[in-house]
């Protein structure tokens, strides 16, 4: 019970900070939309190609938006030595991780909704018929991606050039969840039977579970002071 | 003493490599369809095995570091990461050289090639992290965390990537029925695996000793600075 309270405290704190400065969400959404927008110039897809390109385009845009989100998440904590304050708090560091992760999940989730909406609009593609499967797939994939990203965001907070280093650290590790997300989304958007891409959803879910547990255990070391 | 040991190690490595190369070019029979080009296999595959070994060492040393906080484990992880990166690069260079004549293309995003590339990226990000951490006291811990996450990621990567159709030849060592090598090819291959591991261990030990020496030098410098400031 106490653990839940701690997680919630961190989560609410992040929401409050976001509510007061409204920086993260705005920049993440705009950045995600820009990726989709630029993609349009790069490929100028017709109707048929749209269906083929869309899942990849969406996930690339989610991935880039995520990097921005995780960077912000811990760049904020560096100001006024908040990171040290959290490390000193007499609580399990893993719970801090879970709180930050939930906040990141919410921010990235909102950004993804905006991105999907904009994509549907610009590419004249209706997500509504496939939403029943597309939404849970995106959710599971995003949980896995955020699980890794939050940890690396915290690692990158200690690095010079963290804006560059975060994607370098994170993308190779996030490869399985991105593949799974893209493959499963392709199936869902095409209207294939769910059984044909169920294994991808399982893979993404497994990835999420493994990395949430692993990050929960390792976060103590990421936070600690030398 | 360690100097003699090191010389013996170097000598054994050199001798073993010479034997391995003699076997590759003169002893092993020519492959039926691919011809001489197939001999890259004896350099390509052992490099892959060594890269795997190196990554395993990085993982184990990282776990030991987080558990015991031993700087020796940190130096070992750093050394294995660097040397492993070299062998992984060798794997990525010899792969396309072989693929071009054998498959007609330099590169394809099939399962194992993609996985190897991801492994290479993990090595790169691990080494970059090591050089960019802003407070040096934290390098070891953060590198250990990244080393562990990267290692856990590899089997999941393997599963994800394998579910694409694969163009890479099925495993010939301990594969299913119908696989297998000519006994002379197999012997050559195993000698090469041994030779590459011997070479790897030589590089690893040298790199490890360099890291130890650096650490000692740093400690001496700090002690000297303290002594000077006291005078």
What's a quick, concise take on this entry?
The complex is a heterodimer of chains A (226) and B (231). Chain A is an all-alpha fold and 226 residues long. Chain A has helices at residues 2-21, 24-43, 47-78, 82-88, 93-122, 131-156, 162-190, 198-223.
Please, could you describe this protein's structure?
The complex is a heterodimer of chains A (226) and B (231). Chain A has 226 residues and is mostly helical. Chain A has one domain. Chain A is built from eight helices and no strands. In chain A, helix 3 packs parallel to helix 6 and helix 3 runs antiparallel to helix 7. Chain A is globular. Chain A starts with a helix and ends with a helix. Helix content of chain B is 78%, strand content 0%. Chain B is built from six helices and no strands. In chain B, helix 2 runs parallel beside helix 6 and helix 3 runs antiparallel to helix 4. The longest helix of chain B has 48 residues. The two termini of chain B are 37 Å apart.
Layout of helices and strands, plus pairs?
The complex is a heterodimer of chains A (226) and B (231).
Chain A: H1 2-21, H2 24-43, H3 47-78, H4 82-88, H5 93-122, H6 131-156, H7 162-190, H8 198-223
Chain B: H1 2-27, H2 41-68, H3 71-103, H4 111-132, H5 139-162, H6 183-230
Helix pairs in contact in B: 1-6, 2-3, 2-5, 2-6, 3-4, 3-6, 4-5
Question: Cα distance, first to last residue of chain B?
Answer: 37 Å
Describe the sheet with the most strands of chain B.
none
Number of domains of chain A: 1
Number of beta strands of chain A = 0
Helix content class of chain A: over 70%
Number of helical segments with 4 or more residues of chain B: 6
SS-derived structural category of chain B = mainly alpha
Mean pLDDT of chain B: 85
How many structural domains does the protein architecture of chain B include?
Answer: 1
The proportion of strand residues of chain B reads under 5%
Shape of chain A: globular
Helix content percent band of chain B: over 70%
Task: Give the C-alpha Rg of chain A.
Answer: 18 Å
Please report the total strand number of chain B as a whole number: 0
Largest sheet of chain A: none
The best one-word shape of chain B is globular
- Quaternary state of this entry equals heterodimer
């Amino acid at each position: 019970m106490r653990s839940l309270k701690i997680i919630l405290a961190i989560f609410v704190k992040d929401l409050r900070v976001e509510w007061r400065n409204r920086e993260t969400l705005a920049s993440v959404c705009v950045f995600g939309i820009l990726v989709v927008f630029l993609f349009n110039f790069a490929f100028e897809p017709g109707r048929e190609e749209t269906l083929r390109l869309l899942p990849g385009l969406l996930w690339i845009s989610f991935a880039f938006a995520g990097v921005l989100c995780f960077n912000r998440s811990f760049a904020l904590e560096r100001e006024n030595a908040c990171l040290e304050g959290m490390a000193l708090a007499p609580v399990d560091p893993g719970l801090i991780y879970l709180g930050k992760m939930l906040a990141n999940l919410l921010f990235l989730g909102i950004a993804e909704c905006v991105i999907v909406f904009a994509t549907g609009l610009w590419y004249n593609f209706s997500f509504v018929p496939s939403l029943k499967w597309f939404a849970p797939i995106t959710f599971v994939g995003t949980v896995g991606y955020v699980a890794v990203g939050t940890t690396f965001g915290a690692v990158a907070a200690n690095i010079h050039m963290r804006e560059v280093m975060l994607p370098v650290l994170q993308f190779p590790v996030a490869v399985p969840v991105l593949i799974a997300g893209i493959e499963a989304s392709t199936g869902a958007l095409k209207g294939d039977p769910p059984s044909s891409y169920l294994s991808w959803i399982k893979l993404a879910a497994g990835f999420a579970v493994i990395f949430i547990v692993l990050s929960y255990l390792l976060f103590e070391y990421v936070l600690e002071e030398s | 003493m360690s100097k003699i040991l090191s010389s013996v190690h170097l000598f054994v490595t050199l001798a073993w490599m010479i034997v391995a190369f003699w076997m590759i070019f003169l002893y092993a029979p020519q492959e039926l369809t691919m011809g001489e080009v197939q001999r890259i296999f004896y350099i390509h595959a052992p490099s892959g095995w060594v890269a795997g070994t190196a990554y395993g060492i990085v993982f184990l040393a990282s776990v030991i570091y987080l558990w015991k906080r031993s700087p020796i484990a940190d130096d070992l992880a750093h050394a294995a990461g660097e040397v492993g990166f070299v062998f992984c690069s060798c794997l990525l260079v010899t792969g396309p050289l072989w693929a071009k004549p054998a498959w007609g293309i330099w590169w394809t995003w099939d399962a194992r090639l993609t996985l190897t590339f991801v492994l290479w990226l993990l090595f790169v990000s691990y080494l970059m992290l090591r050089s960019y951490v802003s407070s040096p006291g934290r390098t070891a811990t953060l590198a250990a965390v990244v080393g562990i996450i990267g290692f856990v990621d590899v089997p999941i990567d393997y599963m994800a990537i394998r579910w694409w159709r694969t163009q890479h030849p099925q495993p010939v060592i301990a594969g299913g029925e119908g696989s297998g090598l000519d006994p002379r090819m197999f012997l050559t291959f195993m000698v090469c695996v041994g030779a590459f591991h011997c070479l790897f261990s030589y590089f690893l030990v040298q790199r490890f000793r360099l890291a130890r020496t650096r650490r000692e030098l740093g400690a001496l410098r700090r002690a000297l600075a303290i002594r000077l400031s006291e005078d």
